[in-house]
Specification:
homodimer; DNA-binding; alpha/beta; 6-stranded parallel sheet; 334 residues; 13 helices
Chain lengths: 334, 334
DNA sequence: TTGAAAGCGCTACCAG
DNA sequence: CTGGTAGCGCTTTCAA
């Protein structure tokens, strides 16, 4: 089942078969029909590798995420995938589980695949990797990391402003003992987001007593971090989570400790994933437009298509505080 | 950056470069070092397409799922992915969103990629597709669908028995008005699982009044199905869900309608995904060993590796009822 | 409108 | 241990 067999059966050259398969409008109708018939009869299936190799260009985009269990990433993927399909592209996803070595492996694999573009949606990036990607000359778009340059674009959300909104809101509600639940960063001892929290608090709410706890990104991580937090003796009146996914885990541990939300302690998430509306109590969170991120990512990756975002650009998305049931005024001291 | 350039720089033939890149232990140490140096200096990245084309075999497995938002599929994928990586394989995932056309497209794409094996984890399969896959001669493993034959293996779970366990348990608790919340099957008017419920009820609990509701697989679908159910005037004392993911949506709608779980109505899920323990109340559900499924899938796909599952086989996994907070005795009639 | 043929980058076989 | 070379299946000039 190769082009040649089809060609033979249709009594044309492989070039012609290739033409009809690629919808090149120069083939005579009758020839075309003959070829299609042969394709059908032989149940011919093209070989993508041969096609990519010969054509020199791939119709595949790559997307690397830190944690595909977190619905946030899945949402971005789906938006990107939809756009890609609409334009005849495929997207293959790779998961790093926040492991640096896996990130390196995934990036190399994507390069080996000669993807038409690569979206890197991970928390932290090694600068040598950025360098390597830059030199690879393939269109790359990062989420929330690195600075744009030549083939490297950037989509980021104003995380600082989001955390600020949360802290201010909680502060106004009277909270003076806050905790931040984050997840392990790929590199460095302190995650960027954790640092953002710390700085925001000291700037906007200096008289607040705070603590941070860190664990794996996920339901279990949120739960565990909370257990540690409580175990340390600290009694926050509000727990600010790095994302909704972990917040749901926090909610569970609190429930098990007999602490009511929001009566005893307020909890906030981040991302506004669908689940944040389906847990109990529903999470107060910060909305991040994941669909837009997916669309922007696609635009950034398209090589030359008309009227799309040029490479080497950066776009910053703003966030929005979403008030729901998990937050309330600070509990009255008895 | 092709093999040839590396060869030139290292002053060896492309054959030799290929050998060191593929760890073929016949190259002299000094030559090897020279090649590696050239690779390093040129930042050479192999071309996977050329490699696959020339070698005639791919190190990629494919996996097609119906709904990657549902953690069930993600869990299976992760187990498979882990095994694959451990053996030097990659797995690319495709999502069909329960759309038949998308399934066809995904399968064709996988064939075009010449994957070394394909896992098809979707609810329903067209028999012509099964035929096509069978003829493709590539190792394929289905989940819960079709019958094994030559290159087609099968992993399934005893869904019937699982539903039976749920119905019996609920029946013993005194429930006589049950509802089943399912999701759209790809084909046919009634999903297999819905039918299983109906048959189980009539066999094991003939005097039970029941109804079914169907919607999209997901949080929103579960919620919507429940709303419709309640809207119809039917007042089940127990709602059996096709999976945990939808059950979480059911829980939310019930809460909004002011119905308490399990005091007013019991709810059960299926799959025992992590989330089922993190929602409130925690779901009584049926455990499906997703890790094992992933491992079995991998084994079924491995061509000839020693001591692995031969192709064309079928393995049926049993389930286990997990009792948690979402079920209880039928509410007393006042 | 169609065919012939030169690669695309790599693997694998055959010599040496 | 290493080099030469024939493809793998397809796209893409260049001629016809």
């Amino acid at each position: 089942m190769s082009l040649e067999e089809v060609a033979k059966r249709a009594k044309v050259s492989t070039a012609t078969v290739s033409r009809v398969l690629n919808n090149i409008e120069v083939v005579r109708g009758s020839t075309r029909a003959r070829v299609l018939k042969a394709v059908e009869e032989l149940k011919y299936q093209p070989n993508l590798h041969a096609r990519t190799l010969a054509g020199g260009k791939s119709r595949t985009l790559g997307m690397i995420v830190s944690n595909m269990e977190n619905p946030f990433f899945v949402d971005v993927f789906r938006a990107l995938d939809a756009d890609a399909h609409a334009h005849g592209y495929e997207v293959v996803m790779a998961n790093t589980d926040y492991r640096a070595e896996q990130l390196v492996a995934s990036i190399h694999l994507m390069i080996a695949r000669r993807v038409a573009g690569l979206a890197v949606i991970v928390s932290e990036m090694d600068s040598s990797l950025i360098q390597e990607l830059s030199e690879s000359n393939m269109p790359v778009v990062f989420f929330d990391v690195g600075a744009p340059r030549k083939n490297l674009s950037n989509v980021r959300v104003n995380y600082n402003r989001g955390i600020e909104r949360v802290v201010e809101y909680l502060y106004d509600l009277g909270h003076r003992r806050m905790a931040f639940v984050g997840h392990h960063p790929t590199l460095g001892p302190t995650s960027l987001r954790e640092r953002t929290f710390v700085e925001t608090v000291s700037r906007h709410a200096p008289n607040v007593e705070w603590r941070t706890a860190v664990d794996a990104d996920g339901l279990e991580g949120g739960r565990h971090a909370t257990r540690e937090l409580l175990h340390s003796g600290f009694r926050p009146t509000a727990i600010i989570c790095v994302n909704d996914f972990m917040a749901v885990g926090v909610l569970r541990e609190l429930r098990e400790q007999g602490l009511r939300v929001p009566e005893d302690v307020s909890v906030t998430g981040f991302d506004n994933i669908r689940l944040s509306e389906f847990c109990h109590p529903q999470l107060t969170t910060v909305h991040i437009p994941r669909d837009r991120i997916g669309h922007l990512v696609f635009e950034s990756l398209m090589p030359d298509q008309s009227r799309t975002r040029p490479p080497g650009r950066e776009v910053v998305l703003d966030t929005e505080l979403v008030l729901r049931e998990s937050t309330g005024p600070v509990p009255a001291v008895l």
